[in-house]
Amino acid sequence: MSRLRDEYKNKIRKELLKECELSNIMQVPTLEKMVINVGVSEATTNGEAIEDVVGILTEISGQKPVINKAKKAVSSFKVRAGMDIGVSVTLRGDRMWDFFDKLVNIVMPRTKDFRGLPVGAFDGSGNYSIGVEDHTVFPEVDANNVRKIRSLQVTIVTTAKDDKLAKIFLDKFGFPFRKDVNEG
Predict the structure, then answer these.
(1) Cα(81)–Cα(171) distance, rounded to whole angstroms?
(2) What is the pLDDT of residues 76-92, one digit of tens each?
(3) Is 34 helix (H, G, I), strand (E, B) or coil?
(4) pLDDT (mean) for 93-118
(5) 66: enclosing H helix or E strand
(6) Which residues, in sequence order, are CB contacts of 150 under 8 Å at separation 6+?
(7) How far apart are CA 181 and CA 115, in angstroms?
(8) Burial (0-12, 13-18, 19+ Cβ within 10 Å), 156
(9) Are residues 178 and 130 in contact, defined by beta-carbon separation less than 8 angstroms?
(10) Which domains does the chain have, with CATH numbers?
(11) How many whole angstroms separate alpha carbon 169 and alpha carbon 4?
(12) pLDDT at 182 (0 to 100)
């Protein structure tokens, strides 16, 4: 079992139950899944781009990703229906908790000019999305073997019913939110 999952079950869950005045332990929010997504715009002209991104996401997540296909044709982007346009992977269980630990404690501190994540990136249902501009901040990626810097999006899906409860939940793990009170 991962370190953060143990900490959640033994300490954080009880703290949240008292702090948020919840009546049942099942009302305490938890991580449901994490989705890592990479859009590959040059896949229309470069066939190797998708395979490159699949390799990168496999290294980062420890799980084989799914190749996403275009649903509609968009002539201005030179995209036809059924064309490979992106790669995504959904993490659950121990892999999700290990990735969350790595994201909060290793990746975010290694990000260049990192000043914290915006509080306003919640979606209204307790889920949070992060954009990572450089995939080489992940410790599994060897920066010497990189052909192109890729950006990726990570969506943290929680069982929280609203953004306020989700923020309190993520704060308990030391999630690096910006300290600026004007942001929002």
Answers:
(1) 42
(2) 777 778 777 789 999 99
(3) strand
(4) 86
(5) strand 66-69
(6) 38, 53, 56, 135
(7) 14
(8) buried
(9) no
(10) 29-121+131-160 (3.30.1440.10)
(11) 13
(12) 55
